[in-house]
Design brief:
This protein has about 250 residues and is an alpha/beta fold. The protein contains ten helices and ten strands.
Amino acid sequence: MEDTKIKAEKFNFYYGDHKALSDVSVDIYKNKVLGIIGPSGCGKSTFLRSLNRMNDVILGSRYEGTVLLDGQNIFDPGVDVVEIRRKVGMVFQKSNPFPKSIFENVAYGLKINGKKDKNFIAERVEKSLKDAALWSEVKDRLDKSAFDLSGGQQQRLCIARALAVEPEVILMDEPASALDPTATAKIEELIQELKEKYTIVIVTHNMQQAARISDYTAFFMMGELVEYDATSKMFTSPSKKITEEYITGRFG
């Protein structure tokens, strides 16, 4: 039996009067990769950003239902949102390094969380860059600007930055969509390595990518979770005809 890390139950999300998610219930398992697929505007990214309350900043947004992280509802009144976002890190579609050195990019989260010990920070930066498969490429130029890196390296730097604060879950919103095939392959390989230590949820437009890297797949359509199953089953014998049509490219 899989170990549930995050559990959404009858989760609804609204932007003003617009209902973006409707009664979504799903179990996200520990140390597995969940791929979220579906046509544009179907609620994939809204659901992803709900998992660490990134949507809180959007004016007029509200939710109903629960999202449990290790059994605790992340929307409970007394919950520390900063702590939720430390536990549930985020990597965006477009790599977004800070205008700082490679080292300072990775150290940033540690410093804002009050870490001051230089040796500790240096060790954590090295470990995070190694975990993000970037250390060997940048170890001799940590003081150089993050903007000197290629697109694929910048994305891995953003992953290293997310890893530095020791999250338990990593959310990825189309992390390879702006990258060339070689850089994409590196990110995919990295995701397979990272799931040894982390639970990963990835939104992707790319069916082949979802099939390659995810253990489970959730298919969203018009704000609803249409089907959710082990990826091997979803891509070979989905339960619903509409899932099959989307996966085989007949629409979307």
